[in-house]
Amino acid sequence: MEKNFPACPVETTLMLISDRWKVLIIRDLLDGTKRFGELRKSVGAVSQKVLTANLRAMEADGLLTRKVYAEVPPRVEYTLTETGYSLKPILDSMVAWGTAYRHKKEEA
Fold first, then answer.
1. Most buried one in 18, 26, 35, 71, CB count within 10 A?
2. Cβ neighbours for 51, distance < 8 A, ≥ 6 positions apart
3. Burial level of 49, CB count in 10 A (0-12/13-18/19+)?
4. Rounded distance, CA 54 to CA 19, Å?
């Protein structure tokens, strides 16, 4: 099934990363490949169900890849795709803005 994208590029971006957990998943995967358990710990207070749903949606959108190893117990690793890594400047800008905002509010 092909997605219908909005005319506005900002809306397209938000459509892909607007969920709070997706941005945090991208943040954590920018450092490299992570297993499900590592992501669950690093992302924060996210349920297994919600994390799984977000990872599947991000895989369907081409932001990350999922590799399953035929082991017992099964091992699954997640890695950002080139498209996923291309979101790094956006996250860097969010870090800069959030830091400046926090300093401004702390000084006030």
1. 26
2. 21, 25, 36, 39, 40, 43
3. exposed
4. 8
Helices (H), 30-85: 36-43, 48-60, 82-85
Is the whole-model pTM more than 0.90? no
17 with 86: CB under 8 angstroms?
no
With tokens 């297993």, the residue in question is: 35
What's the angle, vertex CA 39, arms to CA 26 and CA 69, rounded to 5? 105
* pLDDT at 6 (0 to 100): 85
Burial annotation 82-108 (CB, 10 A radius, 16+ → b, else e): eebeebeeeeeeeeeeeeeeeeeeeee
Q: Flag whether pLDDT at 3 surpasses 90.
A: no
Report whether pLDDT(25) > 90: yes
Cis geometry, peptide bond prior to residue 73 (ω within 30 degrees of 0): yes
pLDDT at 2: 63
Amino acid at 23: V
